[in-house]
Amino acid sequence: MGNSLKAVVAFVPSNECQKYLLEDLEEMPVDKMVDLSGRQLRRLPLHICSFRELVKLYLSDNNLNHLPPELEQLQNLQILALDFNNFKALPLVVCTLKQLCILYLGNNKLCSLPLELRLLQNLKTLWIESNCLQRLPEVVCELSLLKTLHAGSNALRTLPAQLQCLRELRTIWLSGNLLSEFPPVLLDMPFLEVIDVDRNSIRFFPSLAHLPGLKLVIYDHNPCRNAPKVAKGVRRVGRWSEETPEPRKRSGAVIEITLDEKPSPPPAAKPEPEAEPC
After folding, report:
1. Is the pLDDT of residue 5 over 50?
2. How far apart are CA 31 and CA 12, in angstroms?
3. Quick one: which of 154, 160, 200 has its CA closest to 180?
4. Is the CB of residue 146 less than 8 Å from the CB of residue 126?
5. CB-based contacts of 242, cutoff 8 Å, min separation 6
6. Degrees (nearest 5) of the Cα angle 84, 90, 93?
7. Is residue 21 predicted with pLDDT exceeding 90?
8. Contact partners, residue 1, CB within 8 Å, separation at least 6
9. First-to-last C-alpha distance (Å) of the chain
10. What whole-number distance in Å separates Cα of residue 123 and Cα of residue 176?
11. Per residue in 109-168, pLDDT tens?
12. What is the pLDDT of residues 247-258, one digit of tens each?
């Protein structure tokens, strides 16, 4: 009943109704964090923008499709969560928040990202999964401190060559896209530690043994006939991983081989991506 009432109240823009949704949030919390997730909000209450020392603002799981220009006042903001909303374009005011280091934009309706995103030079973690991106916006390649990129569940078919400019990038999640080949640019990124290309359409994997920083590669649910070769100590998650060796061809036939003829344990479960702290 409470959620249903909030959904009705959300359509009424009066200050009284907004106070009901905010549960009388009048002053900035001592921990400098405001969490308004799941409040059925259709607009950001302006008085939140007066909390100039705010460091974390969570607006996930609402009905937002725009943000007020007054948001620019939050110049100390480091974490902004806008995931699970109705944004068709990233509000440009977000790009004025130059202290941001973590930005959640997943599960919206974004088809592109503005060039102004390059102003966020402190950004270390970017979540853009579950949007409508058919290609990775090249402006992402200008975020020089980016360490973690979550771009799964879009419609990406390739990655731009400029991605190799991100020398701080350590983790890239690309599951659930339309990749038909392993992105060549990733072969020129020796500092990558985690590569996730689960649930794509990749039929052949090149060797990744030359990537000295690699720790984990996830390639399950691809129509591939081989597993990527990796250096010793690198964990693979997918068919023919280290627990179950890949098949080899002999005289045109594919022959399954095993190690010491011992049954293999089931492959480990795919780890959930974690948000990297500032």
Report:
1. no
2. 30
3. 200
4. yes
5. 235, 236
6. 120
7. no
8. none
9. 38
10. 24
11. 999 999 999 999 999 999 999 999 999 999 999 999 999 999 999 999 999 999 999 999
12. 444 434 333 333
pLDDT for position 39: 95
Q: So what's the pLDDT on residue 255?
A: 32
Distance between CA atoms of residues 177 and 273, nearest Å: 16
pLDDT(17) > 90: no
Q: Number of helices (H) and strands (E), helices first, in the chain?
A: 2, 12
Task: Give the residues across from 195 on adjacent strands.
Answer: 172, 217
CA angle centred on 118, ends 112 and 123, rounded to 5°: 100
How far apart are the C-alpha atoms of 9 and 17, rounded to whole Å? Answer: 6
Enter the tokens of residue 201: 């359409």
Residue 19 dihedral angles phi and psi, to the nearest 5°: -65, -35
Tally Cβ neighbours within 10 Å of residue 1: 5
Q: pTM of the entire structure?
A: 0.82
- DSSP assignment of 150-197: E--SS------GGGGG-TT--EEE-TTS--SS--GGGGG-TT--EEE-
Q: Which amino acid is at 231?
A: A
Residue 265: Cβ within 10 Å count: 8
Residue 76 CB-half CA count within 13 A: 10
Return mean pLDDT, the chain: 86
Query: Is the pLDDT at 88 greater than 50, yes or no?
Result: yes
Buried b (16+ CB within 10 A) or exposed e, 105-138: bbbbebeebeeebbbbebbbbbbbbbbebeebbe
Average pLDDT over residues 34-48: 96
